[in-house]
Structure prediction request, 795 residues.
Amino acid sequence: MLEMSSNIAIIGGGIAGIITALEFHDSGVDRIVVIEHEDSLGGMLKYLQRRRIKDETGEVSARDYLSQKLNALSESSVIVLKETTVVNVERDNRVVAISPRGVVKIKSQKVILATGARFMTREELIIPGYRPAGIFTAFTALSLLNEYRDNIGKVAIIQGTHDITLEAAIKFLEKGGEIKAILENEKDVRTCDKNLVEILAEKGVKIITNAKIIWISGDKRVNNVIYLKDNEKEQVACDTVIIGTSLVPRYELPLKLGVKFDFEKKKFHINGIGRTNLDSVYLCGHLAYPSSSFEEVIKMGKVLVKHILTE
Amino acid sequence: MFSEELPSKADVVIIGGGVIGCAIARALSKYDLEIVLIEKEPDVGFGVSKGNAGVIHPFVPQMKKLKGKMCVEGNKRFDEISKELDVPFKRVGLLIVALTFLEFFGLIFAYLFLKKHKIKVQWIWRKTLRKLEPNITPKAKAALFVPSAGILDPVEYTIALAENAAKNGVKIVLNTKVTGFEVENNRIVGVITDRGVIRTKVVINTAGLYADEISRKARAEEVVMNPGKGAMIVFSESIGNLVSHIIAEMPLRIDPRTKGGAIIPTINGKTLWGPNLTDVETKEDVSVTQEDISLIIEKFSRLLKNYPLKMINTFFAGVRPAIIEGDFIIRKSKVRGLIQVLGIESPGLTASPVIADKVIELIKDEVELKPKHNFNPTRKGITRVKRMKIENLDELIKKDPKYGRIICLCEMVSEAEIVEAIKRGARTLDSIKFRTNAMKGDCHGERCLPKILRIIKRELSLELKDITKKGKGSEIFVRGGCEC
Prediction:
């Protein structure tokens, strides 16, 4: 068992975790540890290929933005533990994690939870019907499409207009797939990057607002879906359903620690900045603000660090 | 664990690898016999068994029927079986709750009924009830506590039975469909499958929902199915213990086809509501409708004070393989050599060990039962990181670093567990899910599905297009992408 201690332990190496680590470092804090479950940092951002990120220094692609930050991080004294999964935080902020190298315990002054968010599932959205193969959240769809040559289906219907959802849609088209429609339950499109909407429009894919899938059929693989638009039912033959409406926090670990959570709204009880009901435990990024844009996540990460430093 | 080759002869062929087929296979493996179990799906437990709520029932209202007797007997066996098979099992107990005076009168009858049938039961008054179940509705007036009710994971149990049977020599052949029988002088002598013929002395029909088709193919008795669908909602593990006992409302009218469902704390830490009962047109209808969901929520939410409805983990449905007779039928067919095991709906899971014993009794006249001296009743489950103490974990990871690489975050499933599941015969994503609980968390494998695909691909040298969710036709990828 490896035991260490730190001033700041950041759980989650997505963009929120990276930004807070860099902010602490640039403010002169030492002994910062970032604990990342995957074998590389970047979280959701590393899957985006078209999305552009704006911050005070200008606008760059999400990829370039991420590699800039990763470079900065590797030149800093921040310790990054990859393939390391936090299983608990014990008394006195003792973070317990496991990795292929064994169990790690990190006693930390402060713990920043940045475990990110995930898409709401078909079950959480209560879309009734059958449970065949071919139903993906936008994130799963995008990561499979990025990793492999083959496509995840031939004909898709998509629910939701998140950045990631639209990136997945574009990738699905590029691999020779056909998109019957992109449905948005609200009256407005959700993405912050209108460029993605334009690319899809050029490819002849339309976004139908105020529309929602209400039935999924199929025995082994998706066979067809029914969606509702203006009280009219429309049946569409397809083999793939991609669901990317809104994000919910990855609440498992914070709940285990006892961070207060609103089960109705699926949001944590935090003050405006990210302080929780637990001493020295803070929340940041999409975990704290699941409906924020990447730009807002970056901004809020910086604000949280300033706040903690002035405490 | 599974056999690749279809054997050409056997003493006993079991048709159907559900919980009943597997329980019979394991029980028969105590004897010196050549046993073959045929399953049409790519894994055991993929039919009726996976659509089950996982309750080891203490009783059913129909105590005079075969299913009533077998339920009570079966219930007693699970302490031993669960230990032998290393399957987590917990006697959480059942609370039958009265919300109205009418229901309270119902409880009195239920109490007398249970006493008469020698089922351990205890009155629980309002105050104690609140202590036992702090989340119960204040409307609850009283309850009956039946301590013998238990919970387990029905698919985990089915897999454990199959693994133990295989260890004791049973050949389990998957992806194989029975197409007919060879019959000589009104006696079955062979089973014809889409992969070849097996000559055999005895055939056991445990085909569940498709027992009628098997019976027809054998030119045996006509079996009339009366299938009923049951939908269930599962709530997230993250809400903690919504209840700690199985909670059911005292029914005022006994429906012969259902006990009415309950709020069930599952063995995996989640909470299940249901099942309900709806008629179906086809046996394949495992859809869950908006109406199912609304009715289940309406029916069970009134039993509780707090119920975070937004924290749904999943919903699913199973089809009960009931027959028109409304009871279990376990008997020899008029076609010699065929043993019929029909209508095994709930409490079939509970009765499974007793059903297996009954089949052994029937089989005695057909083949010689010579006990095997080397029968091993024990089976070890996959070592689960989630169920381990952190102190022991460090040592385990030092031995195999794959235990330290967590693949499924929600359920804390390591790479080692997934590799072990594949070693034990998992070939589909659902098979891995049922063996390890990976992808069973609230995100349903959003992050870990790609990683699990990578592990399957590596371990089995499979092509991507050949990996399925639950067998042929449920592929994850289609062929023919561009070079991007």
